[in-house]
Amino acid sequence: MSSNAPPITPARFAAALPDLPLSSLHAKAAELRNSITHLEASNDQLRPFADEGDADCAEAIRENEEVIRRMRDRIALLKAEVEGRGFLWDNGATDINGKEPGEEDVDMVNGDATSGAGSRGVNGRVERAGRGGGSLGDEELARRLRERMEVDEEEGLHL
User: Fold this and answer.
1) Are 113 and 107 in contact (CB under 8 A)?
2) Radius of gyration of the chain (CA)
3) What whole-number distance in Å separates Cα of residue 75 and Cα of residue 91?
4) Which residues contact 42 (CB under 8 A, 6 or more apart)?
């Protein structure tokens, strides 16, 4: 995008979201969070110069803050879309192991607490207690589908 092109409007951004798969919504949110992190780091580096009276640095900080605000608004739109589909939003507050700060180490398998390694849910995240929901791994899902598709001689096929 060139510096002269206006950013996409929130309405157009929101209108595009229903057509995207869930994984793309989470990926876009992660991309926006990453950009926000870099803009905030840039502002931290510019701030001492702006404080000393550098007008260009002060203007760059103001522009970055406006871009950060728009990105946070887009993340809110992504959150609304994900939750509107009936899924939980993790807001990027989890660590690499899928736990929130201060959260105890309890893994979830389909909403039930387990001991040991647990099961990874969507996008490799560990489903956690108190968050509801859960997801099956590929192997468990395949096993359950095979069970349902088995023909019981007395009762016939159960779908």
Assistant:
1) yes
2) 22
3) 9
4) 60, 64
pTM over 0.85: no
Residues 99-134 as b or e (16 or more Cβ within 10 Å = b): beeebeeebbbeeeeeeeebbebeeebbbbeebeeb
Instruction: For residue 127, give the nearest of 144, 102, 110, 104 by alpha carbon.
Output: 110
> pLDDT, tens digit, for every residue of 3-20?
678 888 999 999 999 999
pLDDT tens digit sequence for 100-148: 344 444 444 444 444 444 444 444 444 333 344 456 677 777 777 777 7
CA angle, 30 then 35 then 39, to 5°? 150
- 3-class secondary structure per residue, 6-74: CCCCHHHHHHHHHHCCHHHHHHHHHHHHHHHHHHHHHHHHHHHHHHCCCHHHHHHHHHHHHHHHHHHHH
For 52-71, what is each residue's pLDDT tens digit? 999 999 999 999 999 999 99
